[in-house]
């Protein structure tokens, strides 16, 4: 009985979550894609007048603008998800604008929610030139919920952009304002840009995203089942990527689907999937040579592959910002699994390691507890090669685990071919006390399945934020 | 930028985890099955001499003793799991003894670990009368690891039971000592018994288990692939159930497999599956009428169904004790999902709700945040009826969520057919401030799939225990 009461109360000082503000940096205007105007304004969804809550992104290109999106696979899709999905299907992947609000997720708001989302689309469509023949605005919402949108204020905010008071622009400051309009519990606006070349022509892409909690996206392409309901939820992953390349709608979608799997669908803060997760990409062709065809996977395979690679890397950059800003996060951990039979197997195992409460609390405690990593790895059933075949099994004597520091110093193997190394605990602590480090798991199986996941630790601060979110 | 630094440090006083000691109660000796002797001793695996670390359970019945087990499905199975599995296959489901040690899990200990587990089997076999022709002892280990067993001390401990100093007995005190020998981070020994009747004959079953962290078992019957490796892990679910009914080996296994799915495979503390999870059941026939046949699902369907029901209920009782003693747990929550197409769908959804970090932190915060429950529900893909058919989808307008107090007062519907109720927050707080309550989710789909899961909340205390487990 001596053990009883061992696990009782004590006072704990929560470690200061390090400031993440330095991850927001100015970007040169020349790195932003041409043919877009943006803004972020205070429309009145949020009470605080100094906080931006409505963002607009509009393509002004003379070329057709392609659009693609990946939406949450959650059964309880929010109204803006359902509406944007439907628009992409109606237009066959053409859209010229994005409207986003923060402060209210318009999720689980029934018929009224759908009406409000459509209103946002139609009001934003009215800002487009030439005026669209069909709906050409995609809509996104995020925030603390259980309520319908203050749609009158939002409509007024959108209409204000057609007046001389309008602030749509293409400077860094305009992009920054749009990025700020996405924010909810985020501690910094998440904005990045990059320049790339396809066939000797220079293009640009820039994008923004938001998210800190309820982050474990699983998004797929448009064409999901419709249905809506009402209720209080919160938080979400939202993002958009804008490029001035010209890409056919179907190839934009397939490149995005590939990129999202390897970026936004490969991050976890808390293992919880939201009802609003949405990633949109627009390609307006504004930088394409006159008369050039749209990049397409069938007619321009090389160009498509370059574009897909750029999009995937860029999406990963944006996704990682969400993990860095994860609720209560003090660590940024890259989990790499290789030597698996397939990419999907590697991805499932990396996901399991990245969501394990025992792994994540050990990361917080800066404890090189690879046993927990192994237990998480072994808990994932591998997929059979065909529906009727026996699934492959992990051979424990071939598995290796290594901690990889981010500072360029030597990696630390802790398990090699199933044999535990005699670990230098001082060195282990040194690596785990870094803000950034990696965990590599090599299953040593035949097959080249490899996947990377990004996760953060699990801290007192996470419990504090989410233990009394509504109070 | 006003939001920046919002999520910074503060001092938090960890709520006192309520004492769980009252869940350990004396049981009448008449409720224990006949034909078993047990003990728990200090063999020296653990340093503290007042702590028991070796348990022995031996059937003294003149009838054949049937044995069945479910083992972890983790790819990294510990040595005792591999050895017990092999014995059950060799004997065709006959075994008369169980030996268990705590303090060292003998997991990931390579060839030496397997040798040590076999030594424990053979030494315990030597205590059986008549002496067995084949191995008839099942072995289990649990504890903080990375090391091989102190096998000399364990052998001496087992052999001491053949001497006049031996403490094997059948009193409550003997059962209690055996239960204590299972304990690691548990705060109380977990021991229960029950009396039941089949065909007018009275039988008894009693059992014990242990576990507090790394609890999210997924166990299946014997016959898994072999393989072993080395490494530091910890914690586990172990349990055994002893009955004096006579049950054929195959029916004991099928009843146990059914029972484990609805008990031990339906609990979660932290969503992490261990490498050592093992549940064993022995049926020694000591209370069966002379000359009676063993209960079997083909030759005595009625008797089998009664036995299966009793075993399932009893296994659930034992499983629930583990959740009550979950690391850092302050709540005991019963999650019931119904109106699903199949039991498996209901079970997957109940499991997802029970492991959601956002749900569990809200439970800790006594926050009736049903939105998080809904998001978790919607994140689970339902199974297609056949491999080639389209999976069914949840209709959000048919889903209802209810909080159910344990004190017999009225349940509180918070979502009815997809429509949020206007929730009396005072009443909600009243229910969630109870130690025990339930969450009912009705999907409203055609099909009678229903499953129950037991979980606990996610507290600062959990982070404290697991953030510096090894230090």
Automatic annotation (TrEMBL), chains A, B:
Would you kindly state one Gene Ontology biological process term found in this protein's UniProt entry? L-arginine biosynthetic process
Question: Which keywords does this chain's UniProt record carry?
Answer: Acyltransferase, Amino-acid biosynthesis, Arginine biosynthesis, Autocatalytic cleavage, Mitochondrion, Multifunctional enzyme, Transferase
Q: What is this protein called?
A: Arginine biosynthesis bifunctional protein ArgJ, mitochondrial
Q: Key word Nucleotide-binding present in the record?
A: no
Q: Does the keyword Thylakoid apply?
A: no
Its function, per the record, reads:
Catalyzes two activities which are involved in the cyclic version of arginine biosynthesis: the synthesis of acetylglutamate from glutamate and acetyl-CoA, and of ornithine by transacetylation between acetylornithine and glutamate.
Its EC number(s): 2.3.1.35, 2.3.1.1
How does the annotation summarize its subunit structure?
Heterodimer of an alpha and a beta chain.
Would you identify the family this protein belongs to, as annotated? Belongs to the ArgJ family.
Pfam assignment, any one: ArgJ
Instruction: Provide the Gene Ontology terms for cellular component.
Output: mitochondrial matrix
Give a short account of its post-translational modification.
The alpha and beta chains are autoproteolytically processed from a single precursor protein within the mitochondrion.
Organism of this sequence: Hypsizygus marmoreus (White beech mushroom)
């Amino acid at each position: 009985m001596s053990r009883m009461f061992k696990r009782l109360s004590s006072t704990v000082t929560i470690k200061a979550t390090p400031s993440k503000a330095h991850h927001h940096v100015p970007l040169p205007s020349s790195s932003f894609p041409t043919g877009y105007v943006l803004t972020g304004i205070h429309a009145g969804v949020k009470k605080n007048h100094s906080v931006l809550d409505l963002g607009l992104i509009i393509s002004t290109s003379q070329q057709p603008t392609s659009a693609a999106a990946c939406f949450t696979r959650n059964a309880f899709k929010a109204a803006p998800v359902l509406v944007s999905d439907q628009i992409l299907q109606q237009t066959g992947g053409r859209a010229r604008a994005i409207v986003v609000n923060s402060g209210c997720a318009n999720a689980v708001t029934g018929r009224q929610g759908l009406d409000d989302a459509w209103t946002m689309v139609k009001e934003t469509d009215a800002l487009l030139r030439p005026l669209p023949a069909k709906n050409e605005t995609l809509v996104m919402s995020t925030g603390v919920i259980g309520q319908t949108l203050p749609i009158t204020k939002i409509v007024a905010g959108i209409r204000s952009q057609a007046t001389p008071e309008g602030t749509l622009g293409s400077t860094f400051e305009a992009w920054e304002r749009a990025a700020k309009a996405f924010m909810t519990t985020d501690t910094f606006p998440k904005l990045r840009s990059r320049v790339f070349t396809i066939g000797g022509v220079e293009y640009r892409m820039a994008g923004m995203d938001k998210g800190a909690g309820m982050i474990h996206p699983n998004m797929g392409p448009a064409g999901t089942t419709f249905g809506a309901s009402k209720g209080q939820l919160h938080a979400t992953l939202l993002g958009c990527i804008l490029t001035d390349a010209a890409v056919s709608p179907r190839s934009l979608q397939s490149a995005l689907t590939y990129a999202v799997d390897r970026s936004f669908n490969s991050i976890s803060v808390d293992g919880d999937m939201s009802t609003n997760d949405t990633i949109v990409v627009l390609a307006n062709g504004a930088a394409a040579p006159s008369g050039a065809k749209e990049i397409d996977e069938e007619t321009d395979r090389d160009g498509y592959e370059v574009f897909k690679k750029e999009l995937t890397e860029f999406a990963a950059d944006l996704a990682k910002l969400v993990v860095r800003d994860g609720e209560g996060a003090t660590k940024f951990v890259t989990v790499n699994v290789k030597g698996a039979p397939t990419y999907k197997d590697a991805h499932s195992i990396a996901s399991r390691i990245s969501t394990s409460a025992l792994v994540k609390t050990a990361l917080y405690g800066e404890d090189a507890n690879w046993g927990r990593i192994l237990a998480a790895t072994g808990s994932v059933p591998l997929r059979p090669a065909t529906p009727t075949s026996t699934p492959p099994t992990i051979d424990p004597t071939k598995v290796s685990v290594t901690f990889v520091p981010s500072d360029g110093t030597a990696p630390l193997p802790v398990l090699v071919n199933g044999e535990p190394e005699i670990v230098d605990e001082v060195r282990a602590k040194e690596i785990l006390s870094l803000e950034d480090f990696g965990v590599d798991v090599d299953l040593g199986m035949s097959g080249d399945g490899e996947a990377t996941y990004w996760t953060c630790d699990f801290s007192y601060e996470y419990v504090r934020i989410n233990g009394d979110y509504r109070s």
